[in-house]
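Suppose you are handed a protein chain with no further information: no name, no annotation, nothing but its sequence. What can you learn? This example shows the usual starting point.
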Amino acid sequence: MTGRNSFQSLRDAMTPAQRANAATKAAALREEMSLSELRQARLLTQETLGETLHVGQAAVAKMEKRADMYVSNLRRFIEAMGGELHIVAQFPEGAVTISNFAAIGDLPPGSSR
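A reasonable first move is to predict its three-dimensional structure. Written in structure tokens, the prediction is:
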């Protein structure tokens, strides 16, 4: 492979400061992802995620492109990838976890929020 270097050889050529800078940027990128990027980072295909959600691949693709969706649908999507959804409001004084978005299974029968 002419003109190409392995990632390891590029990393080995970096100074400690450059490695630290790259690690900081990588951590920041991991903190903010679209749903499709998150799915890909979890090594899941739209098809396998669709099987878990009991929907087709096209429905998963549509969900990933939505700019607005119900919290319950987002929760199902995240849980299908093995995660938990927490809604957190950030304020200058600190963060507050919003608790009234309980999972459907957490509610007693016949109750609503």
